[in-house]
Amino acid sequence: MATSDVPARPATASRRWSLLRSTEVGVLTVDASGKLAAVLFLVSGCVTALSTLLPSSPDLNHGMVVVIGVVAGIEGFVLAGLPWKRLPAWTCAAIVVPSAFVLIAVHNYNGGLDPYRYSIFYPVVFVWIGLTQRRWTSLAVSPLLTASYLAPLVLRYEPAWTLASTVMVVPVMVLIGEAIAWVAASVVSTKAELLRLAGTDALTGLDNRATFYQQLARAWEQEGSSPGRVAVFFVDLDGFKDVNDAYGHEAGDRLLVEVARRLRASARREDRVARLGGDEFAIMAPGVTDGPEAEVIARRLVEVLGSPLEVGGTSVVPSASVGFALAGGDCVDPDQLIRRSDLAMYQAKQSGGGRFSCYCQVRRAAGSGGPATTPDVPLRTS
Questions:
Q1: Which among 269, 276, 271, 264 is positioned nearest to 210, based on CA atoms?
Q2: Strand partners, 291
Q3: Is 26 helix (H, G, I), strand (E, B) or coil?
Q4: Which of 43, 48, 209, 247 lies most in the core, judged by the most C-beta atoms within 10 Å?
Q5: How far is it, in rounded angstroms, from Cα 92 to Cα 205?
Q6: Is residue 46 within a helix (H) or strand (E), and if so which, with residue range?
Q7: Fold designation for 203-381
Q8: Active site residue: 279, 335, 342, 376, which one?
Q9: Is residue 279 annotated as part of the catalytic site, yes or no?
Q10: DSSP state, 331?
Q11: What local confidence, expressed as pLDDT, does residue 175 receive?
């Protein structure tokens, strides 16, 4: 089968694969949470130190407040330099929240009973918790908040009415954190749903072309510099246009949905099934290493899709052409693997349909120069 006889696929550059490989899902990662905490510590430290220049309570310890501001700024620089990407997710909150409450408590002890100064930094902490942590984290850390709020008051022998303010401050702070966490969770959930819809075929619920390419690129990368443990199967229905013409597009849609169901049912748990468009489907099968193993899968696909089904009140026996190719050898990128599977599928279709076709690399001796690689040729049509 000559390459020129097959409808060409749109040219795909390596840039497309690099874009897919760089796709990341997520809003505030551990790294972003750590960096945000660093900024908040730096800003809060500067505000704390500069606040000594403003009119304040007579018992304000100016020197200690400046020291606390400097310490907060230093911690901000330390947090900015930590390798958050290599640290477990729980370490961020474990470092940030206790240290923030300790600094706030020490600041409040040395700041005097100034109602404008005393609670100012607690909202900053709970805004950070709401943006970066799971829901109910604010409630979980409320004992730390209570301790850091009461400790300066108790140590300074403040009157009971100041202690009673805890009843108002703690619920308000928890409410701030949980409200922000709820909004953040809603945003993340909506984003995840939009990403899912963007990567899903609306009719069949299978992966669409973009998602299939992305998953194939990831599987290819997992194999490193010598990929060879993934196979791609292209499936194209034979005579699908005749079904549409005879029974209408609604019947054609029902046929596509049934084909998708059968493909999903016959696939292994680790396989990825996608509808590429129209009546064309694809399956990525990780771990398939040789032709005989892939032929078993291809034969099963042809048999499963060939079972009768009801369309428009009439029993119809569908037929499908299946082509597959294996990674490895001189297959240099996912594009080439897809192209080989596509060519194999067209070979099966040109051979009459209702069958599968496999491709392989064929080596032949090229004189005394040693082995050379020939163009891809069909291994077998069955």
A1: 276
A2: none
A3: coil
A4: 48
A5: 37
A6: helix 30-50
A7: Alpha-Beta Plaits (3.30.70)
A8: 279
A9: yes
A10: -
A11: 96
